[in-house]
Specification:
Blueprint: H1 9-14, E1 38-41, H2 45-58, E2 63-67, H3 75-78, E3 82-83, H4 90-104, H5 106-110, E4 121-125, H6 128-143, E5 149-152, H7 153-159, E6 173-177, E7 181-182, H8 185-198, E8 202-205, E9 209-215, E10 218-224, E11 229-230, E12 234-236, H9 242-248, E13 255-265, E14 275-278, E15 283-287, E16 293-303, H10 311-324, E17 333-344, E18 350-353, E19 359-363, H11 373-386, H12 400-403
Parallel strand pairs: 1-2, 1-12, 2-8, 4-14, 12-19
Antiparallel strand pairs: 3-7, 4-6, 5-6, 9-10, 10-11, 13-16, 13-17, 14-15, 15-16, 18-19
The structure holds flavin-adenine dinucleotide.
The site of flavin-adenine dinucleotide has 40 residues, from α2, β2, α3, β13 and β17.
């Protein structure tokens, strides 16, 4: 029998042939105290960012982030990492462009490389109707002071050389947001967590919130699998789990939970140096630093909490990618996965105060909340501290569902983002 020459690090550790490296931990393992000034539920990017800015900018020193699973293991770790601000409405453009400005300095702010890569993002049109939508989009972007360039098909193809030149879906035109791009999703969660921990925030993993204590119309604490924790300020930052959890505090959230899937291929040499999104073929893609093609599409068509991939989404994604880049047709898919998201019918987030005093929301991000992580956390921290909405998030309050002042961004990408 052939002698085995290679062993995994885990096997070597188990056999005592390798020692656990003595690297400093990025954050401490904490047990919950019995009370905090602020409890953040959910250690995704948004919850961690809110905790970080609370401690850093508002001097909060008794903040806990409670996470039922592991830190960053929700939609934050499952997203396709596109960061952009090419929205239609001034309220969204202002908010997402502020987020983009925070992304530009985030590695320095956290002293942690979040690998923000402003490689530009193209939206493509393939016919006259798509072109009209793109013209509308570029006009809105320019009016909103967002960087934008409109290019005809030939110019698009000269910038993205592998795009299919003789297709069923001709490249009619494209809009480029030159300062959009990607970032490393895990690093964002880890960077915020490490920086928040260093400022004294308690991050408690494996701690599931199972209910809320409400006295009169004010929140007084949370119930968890590690016992009750008192707090007069509670932030719900749990993405796809928002409706079910908010209901436990007596708050109805007009969001429905859907899954969104993503895919990566085996790695190849540098092939695509930008992000490409094509609403008509139903896909968007970029290339990771490892060389994998990172591919996303639209939401699953039925509500679900199952974080599972499906063959039909896989087939749709492959078909769309091959329409755009036939030279990728022989690549093998390496992984496929899904994340659960809280989707609101105007495709805008829900941020700010609720009718329960001290109970704040950071939710409704649907398919596009990764790009909002820095601004979501920043604005929510100010909102919690002053107990009134930060001006940038005021239009995104829960009350818009009664006033009717919706911000309908459903067309901002055509698919997910
Ligand atoms: P999450 O990261 O999901 O964090 C919520 C946390 O709450 C989870 O860790 C969960 O375990 C925890 N939690 C839930 N219930 C409880 C409880 N009872 N007690 C304690 N903790 C609890 N956005 C973009 O901007 N660009 C993209 O390219 C993009 N692509 C995407 C692709 C896919 C496949 C998916 C799934 C999403 C994508 N998104 C994208 C959306 C983005 O990932 C989310 O909007 C964003 O990450 C939400 O962050 P979050 O911190 O609110 O939620």
């Amino acid at each position: 029998m052939a002698k085995r020459l290679s062993y995994s690090a885990g096997e070597l550790l188990r056999q005592g042939l390798r020692k656990e490296p003595n690297w400093p931990k990025l954050w401490r393992d904490q047990e919950p105290r019995r009370s905090y000034d602020v409890v953040v539920v959910g250690a995704g990017g948004h919850g961690l960012a809110a905790a970080y800015y609370l401690a850093k900018l508002h001097g909060a020193d008794r903040v806990a982030v409670l996470e039922k699973g592991w830190l960053g293991g929700g939609a934050t770790a499952r997203n396709t990492t596109v960061v952009r601000s090419n929205y239609f409405y001034p309220e969204s453009a202002k908010f997402y462009d502020f987020s983009l400005s925070l992304w530009k300095g985030l590695s320095k702010e956290l002293n942690y490389n979040v690998m923000f890569s402003p490689r530009g993002m193209w939206m493509l049109s393939h016919d006259r109707h798509g072109d009209e939508m793109l013209r509308r989009s570029v006009n809105a972007m320019l009016l909103n002071n967002v960087q934008a360039e409109y290019h005809k098909g030939d110019a698009v193809r000269s910038r993205i050389p592998h795009l299919n030149p003789a297709p069923r879906f001709p490249i009619w035109s494209g809009v480029l947001q030159p300062d959009a791009g990607t970032a490393r999703h895990d690093a964002v969660a880890w960077g915020y967590a490490r920086a928040a921990d260093a400022l004294g925030v308690d991050i408690i993993q494996g701690c599931e919130v199972t209910g809320f204590d409400v006295s009169g119309s004010s929140v007084t604490g949370v119930r968890t699998n590690k016992g009750p924790i008192a707090s007069e300020k509670v932030v719900l930052s749990v993405a796809g789990h928002t409706p079910e959890l908010a209901r436990l505090a007596g708050i109805e959230i007009p969001a429905i939970t859907y899954c969104l899937q993503a895919f990566v291929t085996e790695p190849v040499k540098p092939f695509l140096d930008t992000v490409v999104l094509s609403p008509a073929t139903g896909v968007y893609l970029s290339q990771s630093d490892k060389g994998e093609m990172v591919i996303g599409g639209g939401l699953d068509l039925f509500p679900s909490y199952a974080q599972r991939g499906s063959p039909e989404a896989h087939m749709r994604a492959a078909a769309g990618v091959i329409e755009l880049f036939p030279s990728l047709s022989r690549l093998r898919f390496l992984r496929q996965w899904a994340g659960v998201l809280d989707v609101v019918h105007d495709s805008s987030p829900i941020l700010g105060l609720t009718d329960v005093k001290g109970f704040y929301l950071n939710c409704g991000w649907g398919t596009g909340g990764f790009k909002a992580t820095p601004a979501g956390g920043f604005c929510l921290a100010a909102t919690i501290t002053e107990d009134r909405p930060h001006p940038l998030i005021k239009p995104f309050g829960l009350e818009r569902f009664t006033t009717g002042a919706m911000i309908d961004e459903a067309a901002a990408s055509g698919i997910a983002h």
